């Protein structure tokens, strides 16, 4: 019973069943043509070009670009830095004002109210703090201040790169 499950092949049987090397190569090429038609992208962590790995096609390497999924292909854009030149045109309108909080007064020494004491020989141009008192400036009432205008884009360029992992990438052109 053991021998019923064992299949024995002769050398001729194996030779007859062996696929032709040309047929295998043709089948491999057809599979790869289906998987990687013209316009396909090939990515790898290995720098070996896809025509060497796959054995078919003409490929152009994609360098220094992020892949961006869109409704059309082969368009490029963007930059590595953000600066005033690559921000959209814009300005900021500023309209600031105080609201009736401007009234105020200050205290000062009132030299004009100085009274010279009787019996003293005091010259008119000498000022003393004797009999002098604090007085207040006169406020001009509540008032407002207003500042208006537009800002403009200023500043320095900054590097901007989201977290990434580098890969080798090509797209098939023929």
Account of the protein in words:
By secondary structure, this protein is of the alpha+beta class. It has helices at 2-5, 11-17, 21-35, 50-54, and strands at 41-44, 59-62, 81-82, 93-97, 107-110, 133-136, 146-150, 158-159, 168-172. The longest helix is centred in the N-terminal third of the chain and has 15 residues, at 21-35.
Architecture blueprint of SSEs:
Elements: H1 2-5, H2 11-17, H3 21-35, E1 41-44, H4 50-54, E2 59-62, E3 81-82, E4 93-97, E5 107-110, E6 133-136, E7 146-150, E8 158-159, E9 168-172
Antiparallel strand pairs: 1-9, 2-9, 3-8, 4-7, 5-6
Q: What's the oligomerization state?
A: single chain
Major beta sheet summary: 3 strands, antiparallel
Distance between the termini: 58 Å
Number of helical runs? 4
Percent of residues in helices comes to 10-25%
Q: Kindly report the spatial arrangement of strands forming the biggest sheet.
A: 1-9-2
User: Which band does the percent of strand residues land in?
Assistant: 15-25%
| Series of secondary-structure elements, N-terminal to C-terminal | HHHEHEEEEEEEE
Shape: rod-shaped
Overall mean confidence score, pLDDT: 75
**Strand runs, count:** 9
The SS-based structural class is alpha+beta
**Cα Rg:** 45 Å
Can you tell me the residue ranges where pLDDT is under 50 for at least 5 consecutive residues? none
Protein name: Tail fiber protein, putative
Organism: Trichomonas vaginalis (strain ATCC PRA-98 / G3)
Pfam families: Gp10_C
InterPro entries: Gp10_C (IPR053827)
